[in-house]
């Protein structure tokens, strides 16, 4: 038993350490590109072709591993011939990767999530993972499959894959930002960190809400492959739709916590947080394009165009439907949805943080935090706001 635990320690330490420093030390952004948060139909690439490669992974730090995974049929590229290694991986995609590689997936009748339907490409993978106890949903009964995968969720899921369960010394290991850890992942992160299973960033933080990219996800699972015998090869889980990539924003200060996140996966057990769960916010990143096709890097004028915006429902404080208007100055605007007239202009900013139009903070009740036009205060705004990462004027 002791040998088994030591093996697990070495495995996951290698997994999460590589991901943490890849995210910190590499520039994964595409500064000249702007993508919409849309979904497009894709076709499967020849996943079993060992020579299959993609022009956008040439000289990428994860090139060889990506090519290996493609050759095995575990991941696929897009029908435009790209792999897009540096876009964020979704909860559905990461779950499907894990199930496809490490589990002999069995057909599951019925889903426990209200937003996972039989028509979805990830239906059986997510449902099966839930039945195996690998993933859980939110308190409202959803799984949020299209939400991007966070570091804390990846750590919890990988921990469950290995059935890691040790706690000695966890209370002595400290992260500078551990007061922002949600209850459900707090003990898992502390447990793994106390045994050097996961590591934080050079500044002493773990950044549980940071997102992971497709390349980072592939690298993480590649390390796992060294220690887990995979089932007989099965056809890859291929989404019939391609999530249009979201450009990773430039580094900006972490937001001040203001509300309690709902767990996407329950606690792995082994103790509880030694103090009340701190509140926190979720950072939602969006980039936008016109509805027309265009080549990456081409500058476009987004002034007053109707594209794609999150509108808040004033009663339920939840995202209701998509709508838009943008100013050519790189600021968000309040608009008249009938005429398109700009009624007010705002810059987005986390509560208590400097103005930064590349990051919008949204709490779990659906409130958007923005700074007033004069920049002197930060307030909640229940209205139609554009969330953006890059503006071209």
β-strand number: 11
Distance between the termini: 62 Å
Percent helix, as a range, is 10-25%
Count of structural domains: 2
Order of SSEs: HEHHHHHHEEEEEEEEEE
What does the overall shape look like?
globular
Beta-strand residue fraction: 5-15%
Structure overview:
By secondary structure, this protein is an alpha+beta fold. The chain has 2 domains: 2-243, no CATH class; 282-393, no CATH class. 23% of the residues lie in helices and 10% in strands. It is built from 7 helices and 11 strands. The chain has helices spanning 2-25, 63-71, 91-102, 123-131, 151-162, 183-194, 214-225, and strands at residues 39-41, 241-243, 282-284, 310-312, 319-322, 332-335, 342-348, 360-362, 368-371, 378-381, 384-385. The strands form 3 sheets. Strands 3, 6, 7, 8, 9 and 10 form a 6-stranded antiparallel sheet that branches. The chain has a 3-stranded antiparallel sheet with strand order 5-4-11, with no helix packed on it. A two-stranded antiparallel ribbon has the order 1-2. A hairpin with a 6-residue loop joins β9 and β10. α1 packs antiparallel against α7 (214-225) and α3 (91-102) packs across α4. The model is unreliable at 1-50 and 234-393 (pLDDT under 50).
